[in-house]
């Protein structure tokens, strides 16, 4: 049943992407035909004075602008259908944890896992807090259009911590960090030694 639902969902997503490309193509063709028709009528009915030359130049410029917009719209729709995000936003994150958990920044490895790829995050540094905790800072690029994003933090000898990023497929940029979220999953390398889940939190914003 789950397999059937997945196939139906994939087919629906593919159909939506193809429909988006088709609509963009039809819009571009309609724009080109409308501009071509308007220019043909205009050139045949107008007199050849210097004012006509200026008007013809402005008409040609408007046509070029419309053609460029139609081409850009079709390119954006095609990239979205392929799962690529042409603007390539990034997520800046802060992970709060007990200071003793984090030995050195060099030992930390953070990756963004999606249903399309895995991307290594850039670790920016650590800030100590007055309550004995530390904040690990970093950033990672969002190279694909998908809502399935999990930030995986691997601390050798301490465990693996997974944080699901609650973002839409095409997130909007934000000036402020969002609220703190608990770790969605913690895997300890030592059997029977599971870290307290509420001791590890994350917040992030889209750049």
TrEMBL record:
It comes from the Bacteria. The chain crosses the membrane at residues 20-41, 53-72. Keywords: Membrane, Transmembrane, Transmembrane helix. This is Acriflavin resistance protein.
């Amino acid at each position: 049943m789950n397999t059937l639902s997945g196939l139906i969902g994939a087919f629906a997503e593919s159909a939506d992407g193809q429909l988006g490309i088709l609509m963009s193509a039809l819009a571009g063709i309609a724009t080109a035909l409308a501009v071509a028709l308007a220019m043909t009528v205009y050139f045949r009915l107008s007199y050849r004075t210097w004012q006509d030359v200026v008007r013809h130049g402005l008409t040609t410029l408007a046509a070029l602008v419309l053609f460029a917009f139609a081409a850009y719209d079709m390119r954006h729709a095609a990239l979205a259908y392929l799962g690529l995000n042409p603007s390539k936003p990034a997520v800046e994150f802060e992970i709060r944890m007990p200071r003793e958990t984090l030995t050195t920044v060099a030992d930390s490895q953070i990756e963004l896992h999606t249903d399309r790829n895995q991307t290594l995050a850039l670790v920016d540094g650590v800030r100590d807090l007055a309550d004995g905790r530390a904040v690990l800072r970093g950033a990672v690029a969002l190279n694909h259009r998908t809502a399935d994003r999990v930030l995986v933090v691997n601390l050798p000898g301490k465990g693996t911590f997974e944080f699901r990023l609650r973002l839409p497929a095409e997130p909007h940029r934000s000036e402020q960090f969002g609220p703190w979220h608990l770790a969605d999953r913690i895997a300890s390398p030592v059997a029977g030694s599971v870290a307290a889940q509420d001791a590890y939190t994350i917040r992030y914003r889209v750049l």
